[in-house]
Each structure stands twice: as C-alpha cells, then as structure tokens.
Prior knowledge:
This protein is of the alpha/beta class. It contains 7 helices and 10 strands. The protein is globular.
Amino acid sequence: MDGYLLGINEIDDLIGGINGGTNLMVLGPPMSGKDSIVNNILYAGLIDSNASIFVSTCEVGENILEWFQKRDHNIDTSCFGIIDCVTRTLGIDAEDTDNIKRASSPVDLTGIGVRMSQYFEELWMKKDNPPIRVCINSVSTILMYSNLQTVFRFLHVFTGRIKAAKGLGLFVVDDKMHDPQTIATLKQLFDGLIEIKEHESSYMIRVVGLSPRPTPWFDYVIEDSKIVFSEIEG
C-alpha cells in the first residue's frame, strides 16, 4: 500500500493507503478509547520512521511520552515532538526537553503555533522532509477556552500546514460536548472522519470519506493500550 497507514489492519485493508495531506476528525463520545486510538496511529508512524507531533491539551507531556515508551521500550522517539498545553496550566514550571515543548495553556493558540513551527523545522525540514503525523488531542478542550470562530481560523491554518507538508492530521473531538452545528462547522476542515459510537456495552469504529463507501462498523475494545476487534457489523 502507498501513503499513510493507520496501523489498524482491519481498516487499512479496506481503505488502503491514505494520501499525504489528509486531515481526519476523530469523533466520538467520552471514555471510548479515542486517546488510545490516536496514540496507536502515531505509534504506527514512529515504527515506520515517520515524524510525529502531538499537541496535548488533556495530559502532561511526560505522560504522553511514557505511553509510547511503555508500548515499546525500544521505540525511537528522536522524531517525536509533544506540545504540552497542560503542565503550566497546573502551575508547574517545567523546562522544555528534546521531546516536550510547553505552551502556557490550551487557549495559547499563538504559543501552540510557534512550537508547531519549531517542531516542523526540527523534525521535518532538517530531516529531509519525512512523512509526518500531527495530532491535536483535543479540539474540544481548546473550544472550552475559545470561541468557534477563533478555533476554526486556527485549525484552518493548522490543517493547511499539514496539507502543504503532505502529512496526516488527526483532530480529536468529543461529540457529546458540542451541538450539531458546531460539529458540522468543524467537519468542513477535514477530508474524512474516524467515527466512534457506543454499542451496547462497548464501542464501535468506522472510517468515512477515505473510500467510496464508509467502512463497516468494527466492534472493539482497548486491551493493554492496543485496539482489539471482535466482530464486524455491515
């Protein structure tokens, strides 16, 4: 397959490779494993020598890095950059590291943009423009602090940067936190959708917009940070 793979075999087999310059909304309810899903997609990129940039508005940077190191103790994180929007919000005066740059808070869109540019310079331009994956987890948290118009403009620039770099963008949205009009407005920015819904006592996932028809719904659970599918619903 050409292009980016999600690292989720059941879905990759159906949609094939994802073209560079693709931005995806990851939309689902709280407690549905969205964090593990996007982490696994970034992990698949690191294994495949992609650069990765993770904007965290929910977890401190050290916790993000620890997740990947626990997933694989031998993983190469030299091309992995985290923009931590949480630590300084908690009043902790932590220094930046090779893997972690701090923004003052999730509302600091200028600071996030500056650190994004720094990582593009360090991880992409200086390393002969490798494939690059970028994730914001989550857009919903940013919307708690800023209005929709401001966030839309910010994301428009953000997604444009990913398109220009022929990267893969992942943008997590909690569907329970927003009205349908807000979701519809945000969807205009994206090329496709990783959609999650509740199903009885578990959750289901599908991908929309990357193939002529949406994929089937896959019933999944998260086990030891990995995505495990149990059955398919047509």
